[in-house]
Amino acid sequence: MNAHAAGPAHTPKPKSAKDAGWDVGVRETVPVALPGVWKFLLGPGLPLWLGETDLALTKGAKYQTHDGVGGEVKAYTENSTIKLTWKPDDWPHVTQLRVTVKETVLGTTIAINHDLLADREERRMMLGHWKNVIADVVHAIDQRAK
Q1: By 3-state DSSP, what share of the chain in percent is helix, strand and coil, each rounded to 5?
Q2: pTM (whole model) above 0.70
Q3: Is 29 exposed, middle or buried (0-12, 13-18, 19+ CB in 10 A)?
């Protein structure tokens, strides 16, 4: 099943205000019902977008991935949104990651937004990363739907 809506999307004019940092976002729509997508993202699909970790779905819960990214759950709404801080161990600053799902006529849109990036170069690097991540997630969902 490859009936996907718009490909990766990103903010045309990135924010660069010193207090907000830079941001990037990608999204894809998959022809699968929202509850199944959400269950996948926070179950077997978790390593695809966050990394290998145990993630408690409660505000304030801390996590650490096997590849050195750590953070804390800032907000969680079942079948809708999870917002986390996201900091690789070799970065001097904390960023914010938000994964959302929304039901559409074509299925479910998955959006990944990464905020508080340091600069244009970091934004460029993370855009490439999240494009690859969303492609891997969509591929995995497609394989499970077959």
Answers
A1: 25, 35, 40
A2: yes
A3: buried
Per this entry, what is the length of the chain?
A: 146
Q: Give dist(CA 96, CA 17) in Å, integer.
A: 15
Q: What is the pLDDT of residues 35-90, one digit of tens each?
A: 999 999 999 999 999 999 999 999 999 999 999 999 999 999 999 999 999 999 99
Our CA angle for 19, 25, 28, nearest 5°, is 165
Q: Are 47 and 133 in contact (CB under 8 A)?
A: no
Under 8 Å CB-to-CB from 34, ≥6 apart: which residues? 79, 101, 102, 103, 108
State which CATH number among 3.30.300.180, 1.20.140.10, 3.30.530.20, 1.10.10.10 fits the domain covering 22-145.
Answer: 3.30.530.20
Domain residue spans in the chain? 22-145
Rg of the chain in Å (alpha carbons): 15
How many CA atoms within 13 Å lie on the side-chain side of 37? 26
